[in-house]
Amino acid sequence: MAKSKLDSVYRRMLITRFFERGWGKPENLQKLFQFRKIISERNTCFPLVPKDYPVEIIKEEKFPDGVVLEGKFLTPLELHLPGVVPKAAQNAHFQVILPNKWTDSAKPICIHLAGTGDHFFWRRRNLIAKPLMKEANIGAIILENPFYGSRKPDNQVRSNLHNVSDIFVMGGCLILECLVLLHWCERNGFGPLGVTGLSMGGHMASLAATNWPKPLVLVPCLSWSTAATVFTTGVMSQSINWDMLETQYYSDGKYCERLSKMVTVIDDAFTAGQTFIKNFNQSLIELKKDIRNVKQMQNDKLAGLENNSETQNEANNSLTKLMELILPKPSLEEKIDITKINWWEREALQFMRGMMDECTHLKNFSVPYETSLIIAICAKDDAYVPRDGCTSLEDIWPGAEIRYLDAGHVSAYVLHQKLFRSCIIEGFERAKKMYATYNARQQEENLEKTLSSKITYHELLEKYMKSC
């Protein structure tokens, strides 16, 4: 997979530094790893959030095209893992964007999850939610991420998550919070329902969708099957202090002796590294061949010249300049790539890969209820979300549709918002056809259950007589 130069340049322009305080408390990581086994299975995760989970609407504002509601509720993760969620992030805040009038009997609503750095509601509301409402009469719920916006701890700067464990807290919160919001939608008569997001938001949407036991539109944009490569081989890995993480890993036996045994790398951790080394070595062979050819050409040229030192010096200078063109000085990115030969052997990186796979790899989660409602959009040249060495979405979710853009991560985000919206609209058009059939079938099943559980007067009398 070719990597976008724009992605690399853009990443170097940012000053975001991740995980400056390390891995996180060992006891919290242990709780999160254990809890992952519960929330990754639909039959054990779904019962964690009651259908009548309390949600408070605190504000309503009307505008020409519709209405905006604001609400909040306590994140269910705080109830199941007390003390793991920072106090500032414990209340989930969200906005609901609804049209003044629905065009048909369906009342579609899509939950929009935030990508990295997407604080508060403005960006998603104006770039995707409102246009979707105008174009296709689709309502929206914009959920604020833990550690972002009003849910950001006071001592956190911008999107600079302090600990690796914060990513898993964020994911656990969003999975359960989406269940709360989907239940709220059903109680208020909305449907069909869906969930989407860009980049990190796309992956969080994928995780959240695995635990809803009914058809659900899912449109993950610019994400893939695991977050492991994002933090180990993608350009974001350059924003991590690996020396500090490795020092902490070895200084506390709880990480290297206990926690490392609780995580499993799903895909071969060395595949991408081996691919890089193979390609790198092949490039060196070809490069040496080119240099030999250039030298031979230059020697042939020198042989025809008189034995003049000035002429020879000029020729040698030309050769030097030509060599610089063929073998330029390595850029920052190339220096980082070259060190990967040894970097892949670092235990801190392998621990990171194992943790990310354990808690984010879609192979560890249930397959969404209806994969025909999944349309995933990926960038072919994505340097933020590398796909090398990762199990493909097609293999994990048979029946899902994967579409590829000829773009990098940044250019896809900037240039293809309309495409993302059109895929969401297409997903909801599919869902509308399925929605009426599904609801009719559910009503029939509920009626059958009611009839089969009814006790007639004679059966009740007989039961009473026996008890006497």
From TrEMBL:
Coiled-coil positions: 277-308
Keyword Heme: no
SUPFAM superfamilies with a match to the protein in the record: alpha/beta-Hydrolases
Gene3D superfamilies with a match to the protein in the record: alpha/beta hydrolase
InterPro entries on file: AB_hydrolase_fold, ABHD18
Keywords: Coiled coil
Identification of the protein by name: Protein ABHD18
Organism: Stomoxys calcitrans (Stable fly)
